[in-house]
Amino acid sequence: MAISNGKIEQLIHTLSTPKKEEHEISVAFINLIDSEGFEINDFSRILNIRTYTFLTVPILIDVAKKAISIYSEQVIEQFYDILRFMLTKNKINVIDFTVNLIIDLDGKNREAGRKTWDELSLYESDFDALNLSQQQQALFIISMLQDLCNPEFRLPKILPLFNSQDDIIRQILYVELVKYCDSYLSIVKEYFDKYVTLSSKQAEEFVNFYNSYVSFMKQRANCKELSSKFSQPALYEETYRQTTARMRELSIGIEKEIEQLTKDLSIKKVRPARGHIYIDYDGKLKTFTPVRRFAHFPNSVNALSALESTEYMMKISDNWDKITDICEIL
Amino acid sequence: MRNIIIKDYISSLKEDKELDYIFTLLLENMDFQIVSTPHNTRGQTQYGKDVVATGKDENGRMWKWYFIIKGHAAKDINSYNFNSPDGIRESLLVAKDVDFESYSIPGFNKLPTKFVVVHNGTMLDNTRVQFEDLIKKYFEEETVEEWNIEKLTRLFSKYLFNECLFADEESFLLMKRVLVLLDSSNFSSLQQLVHIQFERSKDVSDIKSRIVAKLFSSLTLICLLVNQYAHEYNNLTPSKYCVDLIVIKTWEFIVKKGWEKEKHITNKFCKLIDLQVSIYFEYINKTYPLASAKKGLFTYGESQTEPVCYPIRCFKYLDTLLYFSFLTETHCKPESRTDLRKRNIQYIERLIEANSGFDMTLLDTNSISLLYLTLYITGGDYCDDDMIFLGNYFSRIIQNIIIRLRRNKMLPETYGNEKAVAHSIYAKSNDYVDDSSLLLFYLATIVSMMELDELYQLIVKIAEESNVNIQRIAPINIEDVETKLFEGNMNDNIKIQMSLSLPNTIQEFLAMYPIGAYKKINFKCDNIGLPYIKLLAHMFYNIDVFLHEIFGKS
Hints:
With 330 residues, chain A is mainly α.
């Protein structure tokens, strides 16, 4: 069951009435979302080109929060179309909306915000986190780094905060990054080298931390006594066999996708009998590009006990308004 | 071929400990009587003399021998280390100037003296000229000898290796195999080699017979060779495995022979334990700083397999550290025991706190480590913080069991079957058995004793939710426990009590399963002051601990 067209027309009518306050518009949207018969697919019917002109950032945030409170953070996917459209018209609003969600006190809103950030590739935008207030910067760092997802989308806008003149911000960033390095040591250093230009006590500490971490990891990697390959070979091989079987299963899925793609594009599938270099129609030598699914995987996840991973999940979805001290979030 | 192996081995030894140690073994097998070694002079040389012994030369004439041992960096003698302070020249002259006197050995002081420069390398020709000149000037004819690598190889080969370890072709071939496969952690040849040594001695009845002496020499040589090559591979796992195997099998042999009260034998056994201490010391020294760092036992490069390997490695490491703690505490001087114990407990606590792999009991047999951990901490002086540590640790273990049960529908694997755990890394496999548990009974016992009511209630909840069959074990024949334990085959000496119920309260639990009811098992190793080798056997064979061992009253 979906909501009736009449209800939508009624909403448009309400929105079009002159001199409507922002909060009144929000209430109109929220009432509709709350009304009987409204379902998740209806979001595209109320968030579209017709309502776009009325959707200021505060209204969009109100609507998103209401939606998330009812349907959980996955519902944010229903907002992507309108947000993509908005990106072409008013990029700043989209960034404003997303960042506001990212630093929200409610854990689910933050998660929705981060999903949006990744989906819309906002790391490519000219957003500068240094323009946020001190508190917003702190929350932005903590929220963006807390779920260990997509470091390549998060770090480009986080690392420049090392260039902040604010000592507290640099300190918070240092503390958070040190934890983050358990999962993504090399990628953090890569972005650190790219974005950090200001020399500061914290930047220096981070470099020292990185160097000692790398030397520890080298020693640890060379310690055969603590390596499963050398000290638990039978167990290692057995487990490794399971993980490769799992990878095979995943790659079968990818192959099926490719097959579907070739079918859709009406391309004839040809398999090279040897090697990976072929002669093109113009006589030039070309190389096949391997099809890869690539994602950064946080190393530290496999180091978590069942209890730790539960605590980690709880921390991500924690509502910060219940927390009185920022150190509890850190 | 044999001589190549021996020469290679001897030339790789360092002066401190290694060359001294095996050289003393050689002299014993050459029928020398050792009077003084660096070990019993606490590493201080007796005025140039590293080892003092009495014995006959090749012509059958009796001498007192002063051995000056130079190894490692000084093994190849050139004019620099010949003339340097504490070099050959100075050591020889000091050894001559200050006589070694002993009144406890009849006739010792009247024996003529032989000076021997022992080095596991070669002497440069121009240095030899100086050496000969020195002898001519300061020493009587034929009283100074040089035992270099060639001579040492001949002597070691004749008196030690060929007499003991390489006495039969099979042992020689196996030893070669062991050394080649050392880094692969495939220890089947090593097990076979050790087995053969005991087989050779199975019919011996005289404790002072040469066969017994040769057995102990062979076992020591196996340990030394494996340890030496393990260093070359930069992997001490084989050394530790080898010395553990040899200690366990030797004790099994001693108990079966009924020689546990024979001082002559237990002294030899204690020398093996000394060797074990030094190997463990090196192992822990090398690995502990890494292991005790945050998640230090986790291997990042192999992280996909780590959900299984990491927790299992943690418990194996805990066993090692616990054994070493028991070992060092028992053998240290009484006045430093309290401090050492405190330090050992701190080391254990730091390790466990740094690695959450210790919180994941994937195997029911992890109870071995947990029981011995509790025994170690509560078995002597401890402070309130230690009890808080234990309480928190058991709380984490029990919470993890609950989460894993609810999330993956798995309890710790009943038989301690690591492969089944590996098969179940993503989903429970058919060979994963978890419908019976001893671990839960052990945990209930421990938390009841510590009066941790909340944790006890959680265990009751696990039992209810999972419907697991709680069980406990007792020995059928108490007298047989030690032999069976060191043999590694306890199955036919275990009686199991199944379908135990967990009452609602700790008080009821302790009334139903009173701690005082466990009868003490008398272990022969307890009587000679080596009670901890039981832990070694438990962890080596993965044999469950009887609560009688931990709580038993006579």
